[in-house]
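agent> Task received from the user: take the single chain below, predict its 3D structure, and emit structure tokens. No templates, no multimer pairing.
agent> Plan: (1) validate residues, (2) run structure prediction, (3) serialize to tokens, (4) report one or two observations.
agent> Step 1 OK, no nonstandard residues flagged.
tool_call: predict_structure(input=
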Amino acid sequence: METAVENFDTVVIGGGPGGATTAALLARAGWSVAVLEQKDFPRRKVCGEYLSATNWPLFEALGLAAAFGHNAGPDVRRVGLFAGRSSICVELPQHRTGGVARWGRALGRERLDALLLEQAAVDGACVLQPWEAVELKPEGNHFRCLAVSQSGDARRVLRAPIIVAAHGSWVHGKLPTQLARRPKRGGELFGFKANFRHTALPVDLMPLISFRDGYGGLVYGDSGRVSLSCCLRRDRLASFDRQGKSAGEAVLEHLVAECPVLHDALAGAQRDQAWLSAGPIRPGIRGGYRSGIFQVGNVAGEAHPVVAEGISMAMQAAWLLAERLTASEARTSCAARDAVGGDYSAAWLKAFAPRIRAAAAIARWAMHPAAVAVSLPVVRRFPGLLAWGARCSGKTVTVCPGGRTKLWNECGETSRGLT
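)
tool_result: status=success, residues=419
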């Protein structure tokens, strides 16, 4: 018996921050939206968990500013560098929204993702979870998407003129937007994450951790927990003599041996839940529109996690896309869809390509302690370089309605002449 076809204005594949934000904004604008998310929420995920202050206007547009403020960790007012036995800290540039000073904060993915996807459902999106898109084919001016339940044998066929791929870059499959597997390479990076309680880390500080063949970061998140996330080269990971230890425990030993100041920050700390790992990560620019399909999140482009901008980029890209789609005739015209695709791709590159390039440069530097050691005297003399690095990585760039970006100086005033 043939499965009945369900028609929507758009099908969003992936219910993480990018997909859920897209779905919520489109549904709020009156579009019929289906979201396919293959995992049950809440679920933990390898992620730095930090969202910069530039996301406050978006949370307000989603009606989630109060909920985010209630659940997220403390204000991150300082960034720092942990390298060897040295630590350097500097205040982050202040960001103002509606005349109110704002700072970035961190929220665990088990809470953030559920919060965003629940809001999409409240706004009218049809959330299918846990369901996986296993086939996606053009059908005239529309796409036909076959989805299968992850908790049974049920199948559904969804049809829509607009497809938004928000499934990330780590999931492999047969969809045209899913990345092909690559041969194993020694230099590729794997991500690790653990949460700790009772650390000595100052509550307002988010330091970058420099160590051989990798980098990491610390930040206070929700429930008084500190999130330690890091990336490490495959060949370095393979060289460890683990002697019965988990990969995460071996990675932590490497970190504290390379960076004793991290040992001081974690002295007396207690790990909360098991280590998580994922990868390899796929940094780079892949494009916002391909084969008639819109892309948001890591599938469109991925910055090295060293700058903690992944969640922000996914959500802000969703905002850029949703405002263009809702102002167009893309639901009824392939030409209009392609025009939106070109406009969105250009806006995506303008907003996020500088962050990706800055992140790649910072990652190369942080993974070589010798280069960091040579730089330390300069950074100590001019600690504002850390704030400059934060600005280059996007922590003072707001993606605004209409596709504009506004740059903010250290006083929080809008720069002139930039749109």
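agent> Step 4: summary for the user.
Residues 109 and 342 are 31 Å apart (CA to CA).
agent> Done.
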